[in-house]
Fold each of these.
Amino acid sequence: MPTIVDVRTPEEFAEGHVPGSVNIPLNEIPERVAEFRGMASPIILCCRSGARSGNAAAYLAQQGISEVENGGPWQDVLDRMNP
């Protein structure tokens, strides 16, 4: 089972998110890289449009976390998890 991380703000996350997902806002990712290293792979990142999750995926890949994917909008990830 993948780990789903929503990189939106806590306020946005509270308005709706993929059940079981973890909220780690984009601006907190650099200080929480160790947390990502302990997550089950693959890690699927999502946000509102896919831009922030794309930035997060690129950053985490630079940090050596290879099994990370930009899932795009959180609603798309939700649809993929519940076909």
Amino acid sequence: MIDNWEKILTTPLPYRAELIKALLAENEIDAVVVNKKSSSYPPFGSVDLYVPTEHAIIAKLIIDNETTFG
């Protein structure tokens, strides 16, 4: 990934990453989902969520304070 982006979440659940991406968008934080799951055998792999480095701390706080995702 580009140097000015930071990984803030790794999950085996793609829908969870998309929900958190939407939550961050509501707070005007850009996010990118990188799906590393195996297309031939979905239980293997993970999904990562990246945000710009300057928004990483705020994004982590938003995620930590959202009890729905905890």
